[in-house]
Amino acid sequence: MVKIEHTIFALPFALLGALLAVRGIPEPAQIGWILVAMVGARSAAMAFNRLVDLPFDARNPRTANRALPRKQVSKAFVIVFILASAGLLVFAASRLNRLSLELSPVALAIVFFYSYTKRFTWLSHVFLGISLACAPIGAWIAMQGSIALPPLLLGLAVVLWVAGFDIIYACQDVEFDRKERLHSIPKRFGIRAALWISAALHLIMVGLLCFLFLSEGLGSISIIGLAIVAALIAYEHSLVRPTDLSRANTAFFTINGWISILLFATTTIDLLWDGIK
Length: 277
Known about the structure:
This protein is mainly α. Helices cover 79% and strands 0% of the residues. The protein contains twelve helices and no strands. α1 crosses α6 (124-144) and α2 packs antiparallel against α4 (75-94). The chain is globular. The N and C termini lie far apart (46 Å).
């Protein structure tokens, strides 16, 4: 019901936010509680999305084989799972600092609200991005107990990145969205225009990350990592065409998983190298 790759998308950015907050490696206990919070938040969000989207998923050939439509899990189980996962987030936040605890219900409200957005706005992709942007911003707060401009810029980059690849993914459901009166950028503007919008969002994301890395004084390793990420994004867009979306899942899952991991890994190496010097 909850795919591990969905957590992989956001987790490296959460850890990246923590790294930038302390300009190095956080304490093991802090990393541990951030991991627990991330698992709780993403599990609650994914399960909630599956629950409220059940009527649509059951009618969509692409999603009809998911666990809930096939009744491999019950609604009651999913509700308990959501509550337990949300509780895990709140408990982990309480182990970090007061502001993290106070904002944990806000984070849950954001990630739950996303599931309803495609019912009334084609900007639902942006709301998904905002949900995942809670990860790096929340991790910074967990380290600093306050908010600042760098995590907001990192969060905005995540919004652009997620919205961009979710637009690609949504191209597969244009006909279904029309039939069910759901909203998306591919449905609103057409698949060809949607792919151009996705590419533009990703281009701005790379530029924003470049500005952030330079303004934070990160070195050449991070910039090289970002250059590789830009190449991966270009490859991602080469996989999909308005008339051929057969490789959309590869573009969505595999490549974006590598993008988040690569950014985290190169930034970690950069910060450790800077500490050694």
